[in-house]
Every structure is written in C-alpha cells, then in structure tokens.
Amino acid sequence: METPPSDLQVIRQLLADLTTRVYRIERQLGIQAEPKIQPSVEPRTVVPTPASPQRSDTPAASVVKETSATPTIPPRSSPLPSAPAETDLESRIASHWFNRIGIAALLIGISYFLKFAFENNWIGPAGRVTIGLLAGIAIVVWSERFRAKGYKAFSYSLKAVGIGTLYLSLWAAFQVYHLVGSGAAFTMMLAVTAATAAMALAEDAQILAAFALAGGFTTPILLSTGQNRELALFSYVAILDLATLFLVTFRPWRRLLVMSYAGTLLLYVGWYSSFYTRPQLGLTLGFATLFFTIFAVAPLVALQPEQEIAFFAVIPAILAFVNAGVYFLQAYAMIEEVNRAYMAWFALALAAIYIFLSRQVHNRKHTEEAAQILYFLHLAVAIGFITIAIPIRLDAHWITIGWFIEAGVLLWVANRINSDFLNVLALTALALGVVRLLFFDNFHTTQLIFNMRMATYAVAVVVLGAVAWYAGHREDEAARTVAAVSLVALNALALIALSREVTDYYARQMAVYRPTVLNQWRGVYSDLHRVEIERDFTYSALWMAYGAMLMAIGFLRRSAFVRWQALLLIAATIGKVFIYDVSQLDRGYRIVSFIVLGVLLLAISFVYQRDWLQLSAKPKVKGNA
After folding, report:
1. 19 occurs within a structural domain
2. Domain total for the chain?
3. Burial class (CB in 10 A: 0-12, 13-18, 19+), 2
C-alpha cells in the first residue's frame, strides 16, 4: 500500500541524517512510517492511519514497542544486509560519476563540432560569438537546477564554465574578430562581473564572489591594447577594490581581500614596469596611496567575530604587513629620484598612520586572537618605519644614536603601559644600535674623552642601564635574564670605549716618531717601542682599575653578579700580566704591574675573608671577627 505524502514528510524530518538507500529499503520492506517523537516521551508510538484501520479498535494499536515480533520486519537495531551497499555504490556511480563524465563528454563533443564548423566557415564570426554567449548563459541557468536539488559544488563548477565562456566570447568579439569596440566590450564584461557578484550575494556563495573578482581583474588584461591608460585602468581597479571591501563588510569572506590585493598588485606592477615615467609621479603616487588606504582599512573591516579556520583568521594581519611594506617600496622607488631625504618624513608619516590604526583596533576592544595580532602588528610596523627613517635621514654615528634614543623611548612607553611587546621592540632597536656601533661606525676623533665616539658609547651605556633597571624591578625569569645581559653589555661597552681612547692617545704619540730619513730609523724604533710599552701598561692599569671599581660596586650593592664580572675581568688582567707583561714590559713597568695587581688581589681577598659586608650564608657571632 502506498504511504501517504504526509507520512513521507514526517519521515524526512525524523530521518534527515539517513541516506536515500535506507529510505528505499524501508519502502521495499513495507515499514510503517512513524510520526515525530517528542524527546520527553519514552516509548516509541505510532499514530494509527487510515492505512491500518483493522488495528484501530484495540488499545495496543496506539503503542508499538521496539520489540515488536512482526516476522516480516527486522528489528530497527539489526544490521542491514550487505546487498544494499552494492546497490548504493551502483547508484553513486550511475547518478554522480556518469553524470559528470557525460557533461564533460558533451562539452568536448560540442567544442569539437564548433571547431570543425569554424574551420569550414559554416559559422561566421558573429555567429561564433553569439553561440559562445548563449552557451555561457545557458550553462549558468542550467546550473541553477543542480543547486536547487542540493548539488551546490557541481552547480558552482558549471557556473565557472559558463562565466568563463562569457568572458572568452567577449574577448574574442573584441580582440580576435573586432566586432565591438573596447568600450562596449568593457561594459559587457563589467556586466558579467556585476551579475556574478549579485549571484554571490543572493546565494551567499563566496566561491561565486571569487569568480566575479577573478573575472573583474582579468578584464583589463583581456581588453589590453598596449596603450598607456593609467587613469582609466587604476580607476577601474580602485572600484573593484572598493566593491571587495563592500562585500567583506557584509560577508565574512576574508579570502577575497587577498585576491583583490594580489590582482591590484599584479596590474600595478605590470603597468609600472611598462609605462611609468618621471612626469607621472604625482598621479601614480596618488593611486598607490589610494590602494594603500583601501587595504590599510580592510583589516579593520575584516575583524569579524565568526568562527573560522585559524589560517584565515590571521589574513587581516598578513594583509596589513604586506600592504605596508609594498607601499613603502613603491613610494621609495619614485620619491628617491626626487629627494631621498623626503623618504624619512614619508616613513615617519606612515609610522603615525599605523599608530593611529593600532589605536582603532584597541578601542574596538576585540578579544579574539586575530584582533590582538593585528594590534601588535600595527605597532611593530609603526616602530619599523621609525627605525627605517633614522638611517634615511641621518648619517654615520647619528644613525646609531637615533636607534639608541628610539630604544630608550620605546622602553619608557612600554613600562608606562606595561607592554611586553614594546619591550621586545625596544630591545631590537637597542641591538641594532650596538651592532652598528661595534662593527660599522668609524670615528675620527680629534680630542680625547670629549668626542662623538665617547658620546655615542655613553648613550648606549645609559640605555642599557635603563634596561637593566626596569628589568631588575620585575619578578619573571625572562626579565632577570635581560637585566643580566644588559649589565654585562653595559660594562663591556664602557671598557671598550675607554680602551679605544687609550689606543687613540698612544696612536697620536706614535705618529710623532715616524721615521723621516733612513739614518734615523734606530732611534725612532726605540721611541716607538717605548710608546708601545706605555700603551700596554696602560691597558693593564685600566682593566685593573675597572675591575676594582666593579668589585667595590658589587660589595656596596651586595650584588654577586657584579662581583663575578669583576672577578672575571681581574682574572683576564692576571693572565695578561703573567703572560704578556712579563715578556714585553720594561723592568719598571713590570714591577709596577705586579705590585698594583698584588695589592688589588690582597685587598679583595682580605675583604672576602673578613666578610665585612656579611656576604656569607651564615651570620657571624659577635666576638669572632
């Protein structure tokens, strides 16, 4: 007996997660359809239907237990036989795979027929283009039937074929057969793009929006005539970018931003490499700034609370970083030809913009990880532009001083707002300054102590001292490590600066005794050797004095770490005195070196033994001192 349509509807609602195979088996076995069961009802019930009037007169007809012993109906929990699985595979092959293969074979056959017809001039150029347009429209319309039946992926594949056919037909009408002008072809391609975008919104399909975007950015390439039409091209690209931003505002389609930016960049680079000249600076830089502005705002728009795959959640941050770097390089390539110094102010302006954008992200109070990443990335980009502006605008050691000052300012701000991220940026700027100071800066001093080299080292020492002070007031292990490294670097830079002053002083002394005539060589060599001995002795005296100072500070501050630095420096000095000074210094300098070193070591040893500052672990008992 045929199951009533109302019961079939109830079955669809109750068994939505089952496949057509289970439904077909139930129909063949004659299983009675069941109404929707409420969660609060424990027994499974079957409401009598007109199809079973003979059971309506008994009370048992209203309640049917799952343990019903009807011989022709297997229990619901019993496993299904293996035969339907083969039937299901057969159905899948016939209904899905054969369908797709048949469509592909049909399209291939039609294409071969059209090719044969074109080669034999059965169909003229206008007919060919018309067939292409009609075929594209028909495929798009036909795909809607599959979408209505639930085959969305297959429907979108057909739409891609149809939309591609429309673009290629319009391209052939313009480029191959010259049936329409560039304006008409552009208008029709724009209509295809707009229609595809409208379908994407209506069907809430990101893939269709991607088709529209791909077609939109391909249009200028398909219609290119090799002429320079900068204003028209970039105005059209800006409209596409704004349309993408509009779509992302109302739909969580972040991947479209990546497509739009990639398309914009490819068209811009392609035009720039072919047509850009110096007189076009103003217009080109204006469009580059417009594109930069759109994609600088886009990450803020893309911050939406929907759940998404982790990779796509960080798309706004990736876009912000790439957009900033590419725009700066674009501007640098054009502005450097005019005045390189302008780029320093340009970089500072970009830094201000990204600081403003970071505040906008912070003020929106997003809590998701993507927003936090974007906030910190904006700050990092801003600091990066400040760091770049310094070497562009300054020269020589002023670059190093600029990085040190930047590190100090970042350190102060970071500790005012408790930002570990800014602390990391401050340490990065400080590291850049130290590396440049030690390996790249060349100073030509004319006087001792009071010169730019000592001033630069002094700035570095002050900033390192500030880092050590701030880090020393924190309790975490990372901060202690930073404080320790900063103290070591501080002392190392101070000792290097003083040693270089010693080197410069004796270099000037040696310059006085350079031989002028050959017969003066013996006397001049004696004078030079004496100056070298004095220099080597001064090195030893300087290191011993600095070690003694560190030891005194270590005792006063009760800092074992500082005292260990003093001990290591004094140990290095001991090695120099016993290995080098013994063989190289004259008797007088040798005597002074050993006496001074011995006095220093004995004094340090006595302080440790007496434990005047109570540095030992156990407190002393009165009267035992």
Report:
1. yes
2. 1
3. exposed
